[in-house]
Structure formats: C-alpha cells, structure tokens
Specification:
heterodimer, A: 89 residues, alpha+beta, 3-stranded antiparallel beta sheet, 2 helices, B: 228 residues, alpha/beta, 9-stranded mixed beta sheet, two-stranded antiparallel ribbon, 5 helices, 11 strands
C-alpha cells in the first residue's frame, strides 16, 4: 500500500500578536530558562494519505492548507511530504 | 406580514434562541435555519448567532464556514441580503471573507464577560440605520477570541469608508485594533459585531434594551428596500 505523510505547519504571521506565545515565554522564564527573546505558538497537521500522492491531490492539499487549515489573513503555512513510498526517495 | 429573519443553528451555537427572541421583540418573524440546510426558507435576512460552532476546533468559525447553509448565505449576502454575524457569527463572516480581517485570542488571554459600552459610528448599514449618529450604547460582551485584527491598509480603508460600525468605549476589552467592535462590508448589508445585542432587548434580562435597534434596523432596511 502506498502511503504518503504530509506535514502542514501553520504559524501566525510575524506581525500578528501571539498572546499564547507571550504567556509561554513568561512561563519559560519563570521556570528557569534565561535569555528567551520570543516564543511563537503554531499548529502542526500530520496527514496520512492512502495511495499515490499525484499532482491533483497535491494541488488539492495546497488549496485546503490555505483555505481550511490556515487563514491567510493572519497565518502562514508550510507544507512538506515526509514519506512517500511511491517516490522511493 | 413581518419580515422573516433566519437564524442559523450550527452544532455548538449558543445564542440562536436569544437571537430569535430579539427578532420577535423588534417586530420580525424569526425563522430557524439549520447548518445542514441547503435552502434559506425564503428568509429576508440572516443572523449568524454567537456560540462555539464545531467546538471552535481549528479556528473559530473555520469549519462553520463550509457548512452547507453557508453557501446559500454567501450567495444571498453577495446579492444584498442583510446578514448579521454576532461574536462567533462575526468570526464566521471573517473566515468566509465576506468581511475583512480576523478575530484572534484576547490579548490578555482571559475569557471576558461584561456589559460593554460602545459608540455607534455608522448609521447607514442595514443593521445600524435606526441608531442616532454617535449614539452610545451598553450591551453584553463575552468572548475568548474577540480581538479584531487586520493589516494597516485594511484598517485605514475601513476607517476611510466609514465601515467601522461600532467602537469600544472606556476600555478595549480584547485588544482589538483601533478599538473596533464591529464592521460592515462595502455595501453595508453584511455586518459583524463582537458584542451581543440579542442579550440586550428586554429590561428583565439585559443591561439595556439598546440591542433591539440592530434588529429593528434590519426591518427598516427591508421595508426601505421593498419601497425602492
């Protein structure tokens, strides 16, 4: 069975305030980690797909990464294929 | 017959019943719409109520945007039908890109629930025309992700075109850019508002009855439209 694993990372755009990241930054400092200058919190989607990851499905993934998994008004996404038996790479 | 205003219930909607009651108090006929419906049951206007559609999973409003009924709402909104999104409904309207910008987590990270003072800054939209220019009102606000954000160009355009319909007064409760509590589209038929007018339509339960003006405005707009 051909299986592809696609990772989509979604992060708030740099200019958008990230209050969660800021809270985590504060906690890291309180728990003894010095020198933390910034923390940004994002999301990671791990998508396993049966069968061949052909161009049409890649294009569909790109579309859904920008329309559903991320909101382009406030977020950027990065998509990568980490395993694809078909590619054999 | 009074105007029919549809209220969409998504899985996780909370304020659909109050929105329906507000429509009645204003003199309209509330019509229940279901997220899985493919038609709008011949309504004249639509309210997307507050709550936590689809549990706020992914992003607030992100999944509701793709509900079957939303395709109809988007088409109707493009055709000029009055559409009001309150709180989660505002988030859904931003996710559909019927309104610009987005709602993000409150800058102080806390869920907030308070009676909020607002200034009405646009009295030409379909949902605000019954207000007096600059009218100050108090209606409940309750949100965890109510911070309105957009890029500077978009904010400047909204301000320049008079599309900020309401602004927070006294305190900015959630970090919204430029104290923005609500906006409308270019045509003025689609309005998004973070505070909750549907909870302020009766003395018994609300901090005021200021909220009824939003729903009455839609009825006024529909009457004006019928005369055109």
């Amino acid at each position: 069975m051909l299986v592809a694993r696609v990772i989509v990372d979604v992060m708030l755009k740099p200019e958008i305030l990230d209050p969660q990241g800021r809270a985590v930054q504060g906690a890291l400092g309180r728990l003894g980690l010095s020198g933390v200058t910034d923390v940004r919190q994002g999301k990671q989607f791990v998508i396993d797909i049966d069968g061949e990851l052909d161009d049409a499905r890649r294009a569909k993934l790109e579309q859904l990464a920008s329309e559903l998994l991320s909101n382009p008004v406030i977020e950027d996404y990065r998509m990568s294929v980490v395993s694809d038996d078909e590619a054999g790479a | 017959m009074s105007a029919r205003i549809g209220i969409v219930t998504f899985p996780g909607s909370l304020d659909d019943a109050d929105a329906a009651r507000a429509v009645s108090v204003a003199g309209g006929t509330p019509v229940a719409l279901w997220h899985g419906d493919d038609d709008l049951k011949k309504v004249d206007a639509v309210v997307l109520p507050g709550g936590f559609s689809y549990g706020d999973y992914l992003r607030c409003g992100a999944i509701a945007r793709f509900a079957p009924v939303m395709a109809q709402v988007i088409e109707a909104a493009d055709g000029g039908m009055p559409v009001l999104g309150i709180c989660n409904g505002f988030q859904i309207l931003c996710e559909t890109h019927l309104l610009p910008g987005a709602l993000t987590r409150n800058d102080h990270l806390h869920f907030i629930c308070r009676d909020q003072k607002l200034r009405i800054e646009n009295t030409s939209s379909d949902w605000t025309r019954d207000f007096a220019p600059g009218q100050e009102i108090v209606i409940p606000l309750k949100n965890g992700e109510g911070g309105y954000v957009a890029d500077e160009t978009t904010l400047d355009r909204l301000e320049g075109e008079g599309r900020v319909i309401a602004r927070y007064l006294d305190v900015n409760p959630n970090g919204s850019y430029r104290d923005i509590a609500g906006i409308c589209n270019e045509r003025g038929n689609v309005v998004g508002l973070m505070p909750h007018p549907e909870h302020a339509v009766e003395d018994l339960t609300g901090p005021s009855t200021d909220g009824v003006f939003f729903f009455a405005s839609a009825l006024t707009s529909l009457l004006a439209g019928a005369d055109r």
